[in-house]
């Protein structure tokens, strides 16, 4: 992931620099902020290519973004953008509709139509995941999608909540992803967006079955990752959260040669392994790390870790400590 930051620019030139960055990354916008904030303005964006999509993680101080008819005539790449609030809040207006957005909420907007957005002025910093892609990538009628412009898709309920979990996970790990990861995730991300938008339009039948299934699996994976620390996480709770039968859940994992319990255990072990290798967590007891990621029995954790990695947790931590010391 490439990073662009105002920290690299002299204070008095930062907001002007950010205007240029915004135009080059997305489309021409008229950006404005409180004159008292301009000199010390701070913003950063991480940029990642996701196949035919562009994913950006934007962290910024409050300012407004205006896409006017004049700017649309100047440049119109005919792309859509979906945003997910990671931290803070925003207000968006398009097609005569306005919405206030909070953490986890999703929004769609069309860069071919006038648009006004603002990051919450009372919150020092807002973080936003933005996905930019050609209209043609969505298998949904464009005229129908216009009904969703500047409409809040709640991240706390229904399909919106499941899609939000996936996108928030993506935002947290965007900086870790390799080109192979992003190539694989681009298809899944588009499936999740298609499903969420079709559900918001109340037209779920327009989504191809294979797209809906891939989106469901991606959403289930994100749900599990979000709840790894809960020792009570079990297949029946996962099935209930996604409104499917326990049999259907097991079938989804079996198609990939997995079991639900096995996939949960592997993800927990990966997180424990990462924490044990972290020198900043060297003073944290091994049993506390295991409990943090949902292992209620230290003996079971030790056995599972040795079986997966060929070393006990203590031996692995000691090995990592020697590497750091060298």
Describe this structure in words.
With 326 residues, the chain is an alpha+beta fold. It folds into 2 domains: 2-226, Jelly Rolls; 273-325, no CATH class. The protein contains 13 helices and 11 strands. The chain has helices at residues 14-25, 35-38, 69-74, 142-145, 158-173, 179-200, 209-226, 235-241, 246-254, 260-277, 286-292, 298-309, 313-325, and strands spanning 2-5, 30-32, 43-50, 53-60, 64-67, 79-87, 90-94, 97-101, 106-110, 115-119, 126-134. The protein has a 6-stranded antiparallel beta sheet. A 5-stranded antiparallel beta sheet has the order 2-5-10-7-8. Helix 5 (158-173) packs antiparallel against helix 6 and helix 5 crosses helix 7. The chain is globular and about 65 Å long. The two termini are 29 Å apart. The mean pLDDT is 91.
